[in-house]
Amino acid sequence: MSGVIPIPKAERSVIRVFDLDMPPEQARFLAEPGALAQVLGLEDIDLDHVEIFPVSDLEELGLAGCLIQGCGIPEEDVAPDRAALTAIKGYVLLLRSRAFAGAATRLTPASQITLVASYGEKPINWSAPAMPETDSSRLYSGTKLPPRAARAQARRIGASLFAVVMCLFALILYALVT
């Protein structure tokens, strides 16, 4: 690809699909630290958010199915590029926005690396309906022990712990003596 691909600052939830037109050994080498950054014209890239694999590994699922089912991209977004995705036969590079650590950058890929498509991941809806307010959901609404009962309970717990520690001490002393 001869163009420059701008990556805006704080970009989120975008997956870029690149066709790697290179021998398998060279494509596998891109997973090494610094190699991918160099061919993309970058100083550094987070390899935790990069996937490089042969399309043949996807078998009948295919690259389009991987993007839809594996990456959560809506099928209607992938449909226009299905032919181009199916045409990829060698290795493919999936590059997520997080690989750039939120910094604005410009990709200048080497000639063997071709951008096929960019997709926005479907954001996760973390909202939930409001919880109905009941007596048990209010703070400090549980029953409190009366002060005498609380002290008695504390004494029982303390006495139990004291008994356990003394038993352990007695066992250790017995083991040392015999």
How would you characterize the overall build of this protein?
This protein has 178 residues and is of the alpha+beta class. The protein has 2 domains: 5-120, no CATH class; 146-177. Helix content is 34%, strand content 18%. The protein has 6 helices and 6 strands; from the N terminus they run ββααβαααβββα. The chain has helices spanning 24-29, 35-39, 62-70, 75-78, 82-87, 147-177, and strands at residues 5-7, 14-20, 50-54, 91-96, 105-107, 113-120. The strands form 2 sheets. A 4-stranded antiparallel sheet has the order 3-4-2-6. The chain has a two-stranded antiparallel sheet with strand order 1-5. It is elongated and about 80 Å long. The termini are far apart. The relative contact order is 0.20. The model has no long low-confidence stretch (mean pLDDT 89).
